[in-house]
Amino acid sequence: MKKWLLKSLGLVVCLIGFIGFIKPAETAQAAEKTYTIGTDVTFPPFEFANDQNEYVGIDMDLIRAIAKDQGFKVQIKPLGFNAAVQALDSGQIDGVIAGMSITDERKAKFDFSKSYFQSGVVMAVAQNSKITKLSQLKGQRVAVKTGTAGADYANSIKAKYGFKVVTFDDSNNMYQDVTTGNSVACFEDSPVMQYGIKQGTKLKIVTEPAEKGDYGFAVKKGQNKELLAAFNTGLTNLRANGQYKKITEKYLGATNTKKTESRTFIGLIKQNGSALWDGFKETIWLTLVSIIFATIFGIIVGLLGVAPNKFSKGLSSTLIYIFRGMPLLVLALFIYTGVPSLTGNKIPAFVAGIITLTLNEGAYTAAFVKGGIEAVDNGQMEAARSLGLPYGKSMRKVILPQGIRIMVPSFINQFIITLKDTSILSVIGLLELTQTGKIIIARNLEGFKVWTIIALTYLVLITLLTWLSNWVQRRMNA
């Protein structure tokens, strides 16, 4: 029994250790002056993906031009603003350029470059709205985006003007909340709002820019001083040679108003087919790898839960309780940003995603493995032991073959759940289907149509897996 228990625990340790070697290429980027730069995914005209799924915008062109001028390379990580800031704080990335306002509060944790852009916060309302000033917001609901200057400004005046603030993670959902009438207004940086309106967002700006502030490139306080110095030098050079002006006019000039994308469902699929396919492959890859490790982890933990040993049962119950009870979003952020903050070691996003799904889905798998084994009549084990079979052999030859018949439908259902749960990993910047959808919407602001395409893709996959589940159950009951 002790030998079997030690083998099981050894497999758990090996499993978790092996995950760290998946996709090692992501950790090799730090050599030879290559810096990992975090950014937002829905903040045009500063950062967004074009129809070739390339990250462009004022910030993207600027950091690449500075890198070329100063002789270093950059790897862009589209994490979303909030996740990017957390990743920088935990040391997962080297810098952030995401239309980040320079504030005293942020200076406490980050070192900023010289200002590379000045902006102000404006209020926008639906095109048919009669609201024209802040005093009309009393008792109303106002939308803001997490971590932005617009959110800070709205929260600073909400008591004075008597409105309620609701927060979103991306600009498109914030705009949609206003256009659908759920909120009466939103607060956004002036150039971002102007760009959105030019691209077809059905809003209008009704106030002058307030709380004017500077955008800066950020690094973690006390670190990457050479990168910060290179950014400042490169920025000075770009301003002097006219390249800075060309970059800003490219996205803010009048010539940027032409819309070339088809806005039909077929047109959106054709134009974004490559990006959607890449997101689909990442989703399937995440699901397959996670379900393999989650199944191994779950079987081991489930078997520990039925072993005739108090320690193993306690360990199994504890693992199931912790990882099944913790929200997947919290677990993902804890592994990707919390653990590196504690240990000082970076964890690639893909590896963090696999570990997250392995622990969470594995806990659920362990619960039904444990339940499936316990559903087998106790007399089966007693009969096997009475014939002189050791515990391990009794489990393998007698109990598990009967328990597996009970467990198989649950295994396939868990595969479906894992597939759906991959969407939550967009919060740590993995380019699966959900994150891909956010990136496409940031460019064309066709939220309803793009999310319909993403939803139908998931629905087809889940329908196929459901048919598979039903087929397996029929075969086993035949």
What does this protein look like?
With about 475 residues, this protein is an alpha/beta fold. The chain has three domains: about 230 residues, MetI-like (MetI-like fold); about 130 residues, Periplasmic binding protein-like II (D-Maltodextrin-Binding Protein, domain 2), CATH 3.40.190.10; about 100 residues, D-Maltodextrin-Binding Protein, domain 2. Strands 7, 8, 9, 10, 11 and 12 form a six-stranded mixed beta sheet that branches. Strand 2 and strand 3 form a beta hairpin. Helix 2 runs antiparallel to helix 9. The longest helix has about 35 residues. It starts with a helix and ends with a helix. About 40% of the residues are buried. About 5% of the residues have low confidence. Pfam families: BPD_transp_1, SBP_bac_3. It is a multi-pass membrane protein. This is Amino acid ABC transporter substrate-binding protein/permease. Its main location: membrane. Belongs to the binding-protein-dependent transport system permease family.
